[in-house]
What does this fold into?
Amino acid sequence: MAVTVGIVEDHEEFKKSLVFLVSSVTDYRVLWSNGSVEEAMLNKEGPDVLLLDINLPRITGLEAIQPFKNKWPDTKIVMLTILEDEFNIMTAIKNGADGYILKKTNPQKILEAVQQVFDGGAALTPMVAKQIMSFFKPEKKEKEHVSVLTRREQEILSYIVSGITNEQIAMELFISTQTVRNHIKNIYEKLQVHSKAQVVAKALKERML
It folds into this structure.
């Protein structure tokens, strides 16, 4: 079954290029493409992955993350934007975005980001990840959260930050995928986060690795 993709982008030419890009891949299908959050919210079916711009008319992409998550809980959201500043990156991740990709990213990398979040990973371009690391200085209590994680959870945390999928983690550790999911659930609870993107951001911010 094809991975379905939704697009919310108000720049008509760029939106058309995204539709063409996604449609060019056999295993992907554009479910719908809209120029505003309001239009997108009228769609009855949610996509597997949503490519969401930030600079949108009326309701911004940052403001729309939670409404989209509420409407379609299983939809993965990748911010696709020209904005690469601290506020937008961290707000998007805090609000529940599963990835943050810059529009200048190579088209193939955009497709890889779609697949990565669909597979359960967190999609951050190297530049965005580097910036996240540079935004924060080590804190005095930087090891506090790590101390509450078990050795196996710390191990899985390092794999999450590296961007590999649950299935790959299971293969690396010779455990079942369900066991990996259980560990990740415990990590979420202990670190008080709700997505892999938030895990990555927190691990980088607090120098957990």
Observations:
- The chain has two domains: 3-134, 137-205.
- The CA atoms of residues 54 and 61 lie 4 Å apart.
